[in-house]
Design a protein that fits this description.
3 domains; 3-stranded mixed β-sheet; 3-stranded antiparallel β-sheet; 6 strands; elongated; about 180 residues; alpha+beta; Nucleotide Exchange Factor Grpe, Chain A, domain 2
Length: about 180
């Protein structure tokens, strides 16, 4: 019986050693996995922080570029207008020594050149609706008179020219309209 007990105790010791060894081996493997996961986690955190920094820098760069674009968007327009300022300066200088008719003709020429440049280079369109049917999208009625000769509201006279920029009304034409008699 003593031998049996010793044998059982020996077997228990062997089982305990095997169990301890298996647990230690498994614990070592788990520690290695934890270490690998911690390294992967640190790498992912670093990657995320870099991505966030890139996004912030991208937004800042976009904001700077947008601000610059807004600040200098009209550079070409201003450059086109400078020639007319020069011409007006010349007209003023010439007007001091010239007659009024010649001065008016020169200023009218400058005005026509300016309108031509704005139409050709910048998409400006005149709205001069005299004789056309009244259109509240493009015309602003300032005065109205009854006229037995018209069937619908018609622009009788343009008081102030209107303008469109790329087909969008930026200033409606101020007009006098003729209304049918009631």
């Amino acid at each position: 019986m003593k031998d049996e007990r010793e044998e059982i105790a020996g077997q228990a010791e062997d089982i305990e050693k095997e169990t301890v060894e298996a647990v230690e081996t498994e614990l070592g493997e788990l520690n290695e996995k934890i270490k690998a996961l911690e390294e992967e986690n640190a790498a992912l955190k670093d990657q995320m922080l870099r991505q966030q920094a890139e996004t912030i820098n991208y937004r800042k760069r976009l904001s700077r570029e947008k601000e610059e674009a807004v600040n200098f968007a009209n550079t070409s327009l201003i450059s086109d207008l400078l020639q007319f300022i020069d011409n007006l300066d010349r007209a003023i200088a010439a007007g001091r020594d010239a007659d009024v008719k010649a001065l008016c003709e020169g200023v009218e020429l400058i005005r026509n050149q300016l309108l031509t440049t704005l139409e050709k280079n910048w998409g400006l369109e005149k709205i001069d609706p005299a004789g056309q049917e009244f259109n509240p999208d493009e015309h602003e009625a300032c005065m109205a008179v009854e006229d037995p000769d018209v069937e619908t509201e018609t622009v009788k006279q343009t008081l102030q020219t209107g303008y469109k920029l790329h087909s969008r009304v930026i200033r409606p034409a101020k007009v006098q309209i003729a209304k049918p008699q009631s």
